[in-house]
Amino acid sequence: MRVRAFVLVSLIAAVVAREASAQGPPIHTDTPIMLGLAGRGVRTFAKVISRERLIDDGETIDNPDRREVTVIQVPVVVPYNLFSERVQVGIIAPFANVDARTVMTSRSSSGLADVRVFGKYLLYQRDGLNETFRVATKAGVKFPSGDGSKIPPLGTDSTDAFMTVVAGWVRGRTGIYGEGIYNINTSNDSIEIGDSVAYNLAFGFRVSPADYGVYPARQLNLFMELNGTTHTRSARAGARIEDSGGTLLLLSPGLQYVGGRNWLVEGSVQVPIVDETNGRQLATSWTTLVGIRVLLF
């Protein structure tokens, strides 16, 4: 009798956990829910970053040379749940095209950018009726696989590390996710790239269906995210580079369609709402992203 009760409770808990997480993962923010499309599969997307605003200490100034940089990133992300749904490992192999222009010049580079590997561990999980709260940590290494000698460069020519803590709460049709990332950057010959802190906050709402009765079901999710990064100044031969580092905060609305158990498509735009760069730099004007995630395992 006790065995039957234990099995019944376990099955109910599994169903509750699935239905509680019946919302796709955020588009720009990580998720601690390492199930389905977020856990074992392939994710890829095309992201376009446009930098055409010249900023001087946070103020937009004239750009007489019409300096602009357009970056197209196409990363391939392969996460895999190792041993259990609490442990995940993965690799991110990004391909990039960087196009830099002025009135007088035009240069472009294409190829593999810096590859990252990571491991994620689920620290805490509390499931309830149509509700789940989870906290995970992630750490990884970025390798100098991108060619930094190209102009413009495809990588930083440095081996760097990153650490992340991410939390997520999903109840019914609503989800809230928060993430903090610390990037430890090393030197590239005479240039020491400044460390950075990234911080993400995502709000998700399942637009349709209103009542999630059967798992899996097709669904449309709306996301509104805040994605920020603060870089310390870099240094060259021990001397601080004044025109480097600063804070950028992006507002990122997006839509996501989950077609079933095995795939989803998503799209988002990002616009800067805080841009406090140090010194004179070319700043982000906007970004756009269109992607797909497929469960293969």
- What proportion strand? over 45%
Q: Radius of gyration, rounded?
A: 21 Å
Major sheet summary line: 12 strands, antiparallel, barrel
Could you tell me the mean pLDDT?
Answer: 88
The total strand number stands at: 18
- List unreliable stretches of 5+ residues: 1-20
Question: Distance between the terminal alpha carbons, to the nearest Å?
Answer: 35 Å
Q: Give the topology string: H per helix, E per strand.
A: HEEEEEEEEEEEEEEEEEE
Structural class: mainly beta
What is the overall silhouette? globular
Identify the strand order in the major beta sheet. Answer: 1-3-4-6-7-8-9-12-13-16-17-18
Q: Output the number of helix runs.
A: 1
CATH fold topology: Lipocalin
CATH class: Mainly Beta
The total number of structural domains is 1
Share of residues in helices:
under 10%
- CATH superfamily label: Autotransporter beta-domain
Describe the structure.
This protein has a single domain, classed as Autotransporter beta-domain (Lipocalin, Beta Barrel), CATH 2.40.128.130. The protein is built from one helix and 18 strands. The chain starts with a helix and ends with a strand. The strands form two sheets. It has a twelve-stranded antiparallel beta barrel with strand order 1-3-4-6-7-8-9-12-13-16-17-18. The chain has a four-stranded antiparallel β-sheet with strand order 10-11-14-15, with no helix packed on it. The protein has 297 residues and is mostly beta strands. The longest helix has 19 residues, at 2-20. The chain is globular, with a radius of gyration of 21 Å. Mean pLDDT is 88; it is low at 1-20.
